[in-house]
Specification:
- This protein is α+β, with helices and mostly antiparallel strands.
- The chain has one domain: Alpha-Beta Plaits (2-Layer Sandwich).
- The protein is built from four helices and five strands.
- Strands 2-3-1-4-5 form a five-stranded antiparallel β-sheet, sandwiched between helices.
- Helix 1 packs antiparallel against helix 3.
Length: about 130
């Protein structure tokens, strides 16, 4: 009997600071999502916005940790991370494994509520003083 395939998943949720940050955030997020979909080893990438609240989630499924790391090193992802402290008031992420590539938002939401999910350091997301 064949071993089941194990996929690596990453789920994120963040709140954008305000409408002034929304345009640049959405543009960079779109570019990052397209880069993720083009990365070899990406099985699935989804983005969810919850208007009128400025809350956004991502869910990506990867064939391997190496594939996910390759995307994390991409210029598009690095650009997002470089500006995240300016764009977001807070965020949370979690990485987990699954045996199916069809992970849904409910499952990802439960994982984000898990105590092992990582909250971004609050001081990292303080409103810039300049």
């Amino acid at each position: 009997m064949a071993q089941p395939t194990t996929y690596l998943c990453t789920a994120t949720r963040l709140r954008v600071r305000g409408v002034r940050q929304l345009g640049p955030f959405l543009s960079a997020s779109r570019k990052a999502a397209l880069a993720a979909k083009r990365t070899p080893g990406n099985v699935r990438t989804r983005v969810l916005g919850l208007p009128p609240w400025l809350v956004f989630s991502t869910l990506s499924v990867w064939e391997s940790r190496e594939a996910m790391a390759a995307f994390a090193k991409s210029p598009e992802h690095r650009e997002c991370m470089q500006h995240m402290a300016h764009w977001a008031s807070r965020g949370k992420f979690v990485t987990f494994t699954t045996e199916t590539p069809r992970v849904g938002w409910r499952h990802a939401g439960r994982k984000l509520r898990d105590p092992d999910a990582v909250w971004t350091p609050h001081e990292q997301y303080r409103r810039p003083t300049a």
